[in-house]
Amino acid sequence: MSAQVVLGVGASHSTLMNTHWDQTSDLAGAERYRAALYEARDRIAAAGADVAVIIGSNHFRGFWLDLIPAFTVGVGECVASGESGTPAGPQPVDRELAGFLVDELVRGGEFEPAFSARLQIDHGVSHAIQYLLAGLELPIVPVVVNVFAHPLPSLARCERFGAALRNALAGFGADRRVVVIGSGGLSHRLPWPDWRDPHGDDEEFMVRAWLDGRDNWQDYDVRRREIIRAAEPVLNPAFDEHLLDTALPMSEGSVIVGQASVLAAQPEFGGAASLRRLLTLTEEPARLADALRRKHRGDERPGVSITIGEEHGDPQFDQFTVVTAEYHVGALTGVIGVIGPTRMPYDKVISLVQHTSRLLSDLL
Hints:
This protein is α/β, with parallel strands linked by helices. It has 2 domains: 3-185, Protocatechuate 4,5-dioxygenase, Chain B (3-Layer(aba) Sandwich), CATH 3.40.830.10; 256-363, 2-Layer Sandwich (Beta-Lactamase), CATH 3.30.450. It is 39% helix and 22% strand. It has helices at residues 16-19, 27-46, 95-107, 123-132, 155-170, 200-212, 218-230, 237-247, 260-264, 272-282, 285-293, 346-363, and strands spanning 3-12, 51-56, 71-81, 88-90, 114-121, 140-145, 176-184, 297-298, 304-308, 320-329, 332-341. Strands 1, 2, 3, 4, 5, 6 and 7 form a 7-stranded mixed sheet that branches. Helix 3 crosses helix 5. The longest helix has 20 residues, at 27-46. The mean pLDDT is 85.
């Protein structure tokens, strides 16, 4: 038994979806974005996730300048502030998993994250609950990264924290199907000052709100939102396009199918219905990825997983066996596998998959 990351989702958040939808300058784009959120929600449901690790920010509604950790994990009570139509009140937390992750991160020796047994989140996390977990009733593990109060953790430090978090998840000793959600934006940046050197009345007001707002943040919220909405956008389109060009081929395209024609030539797929089922699988990378990630019974050789026919729990795979093994590139993990008919030379295929996974780990 172990935790298994079944899906990763990255999504922007904006309370303007709840408060100023009719005033957007690009309604068609906004509608595509909202539709994509709901599509991601459906993928989370289809993946069978039973807990969501949500990595997000906090806009000075749960953290203030009296104490700003770089990384904080919610391990107990979690209360959403409910600003601008986002969820309000207590949120369910997978306390067992959250506590384990903090212990493992500290034990790993690179990070000593802050933890909170009574964490207040805002839309930096709760927007994902509202749109990506709607109707799913999943417990969460909230992880808050300081992205507003200088000095900020570097991008390299955040990447290493993510890798450490992934390694900690892999060590959890109970069954969990985990979706990891990154909630934020790309180059979009709020017009917030460096609190150490404010200029003008608006910036001084913002800093005062961040310092004194712990017990009455609502009193500052109206003017704060006016300042934000009146400011010029701060964007870096070249960075956004580069990141998307890099990331998008790694999402849907992360499942690489080779030699499907060899499988189609097997006698089990001679009929039209069976062949259509095979072709459908090659056109549904998300479904195929879920089958590759799903671990079932293991061979006596370590690291090998074999899933046969109805064990997949998906009728599309009833005629197939999937043999997989993981390979590792630093802190990243991939899966290589062979999909074939339930009648296959298992010893030969298992040895081939295991050898190839080791070879990939060594070469990469």
